[in-house]
Amino acid sequence: MFTGIIEDVIKLERIKREGRSASLHLQLAFDAKIGESVSINGVCLTVESVYGRTSIFRAVPETLKKTNLSLLKPGDWVNIERSLKIGDSIDGHFVYGHIDGMGELVDIQKTHVSAEITVEYPSYLRKFIARKGSVALDGISLTVLDVSDYQFKVAIVPYTMDNTNLQYRKRGDCLNIEVDALARYINRIREATNE
């Protein structure tokens, strides 16, 4: 489990395709241990092996199919967050690292005090995204400013823009979307009562 408060933004060192899966090689700023969970662009992955400063993670076919990890190239910037430990501060919202879908960044409006990003999202996520609700984009905890049937908008404060991979994003880029877990469970309860 994570909070959506990004700890580091680093360049992907290497991605090695191995059949339908891939291994991601990253030089983390902390000493990772084999078996540790780390969020990479919002995707919960496990440290498979460590060689010096390089940690290696495996992305299985389903992960590559459902996330933007399949689009990564060496040198691309990724968001990093370690999993929560007992006693850690929860400054964002609960983020599980289970991506619900991908969205396209369709607009970025920057001012000197903030930025607004508009994301086009898959229609099957419509029931989970609400104005003032939480959403994670590439693992970043954000609040939905506005939402329509196919797009939502989030505000980005300067600190978040400067300390996440959003600073490198442009129109047309694909972002991982994780909806708020509370919205997911409320929807499931509603569906179960209507069955």
Written overview of the protein:
- The chain contains 3 helices and 13 strands.
- It has a 7-stranded antiparallel sheet. The protein has a 6-stranded antiparallel β-barrel with strand order 8-9-12-11-10-13.
- 12% of the residues lie in helices and 42% in strands.
- It has helices at 61-66, 158-162, 181-193; strands spanning 8-11, 14-18, 21-27, 37-40, 43-51, 54-59, 77-82, 101-110, 115-120, 134-137, 140-147, 151-156, 174-179.
- The two termini are 31 Å apart.
- The mean pLDDT is 94.
- The radius of gyration is 17 Å and the shape is globular.
- The protein is mainly β and 195 residues long.
- The protein folds into 2 domains: 8-82, Beta Barrel (Elongation Factor Tu (Ef-tu), domain 3), CATH 2.40.30.20; 101-193, Beta Barrel (Elongation Factor Tu (Ef-tu), domain 3).
User: What is the CATH topology classification name of the largest domain?
Assistant: Elongation Factor Tu (Ef-tu), domain 3
CATH class of the largest domain: Mainly Beta
Helix content: 10-25%
| Strand-residue proportion | 35-45%
Calculate the terminal CA-CA distance, rounded to whole Å: 31 Å
Query: So what's the overall shape?
Result: globular
Estimate the mean pLDDT confidence. 94
Number of domains: 2
Work out the number of β strands: 13
Radius of gyration: 17 Å
Low-confidence stretches: none
CATH architecture of the largest domain: Beta Barrel
Note the total helix count. 3
Sum this structure up briefly.
With 195 residues, this protein is mainly β.
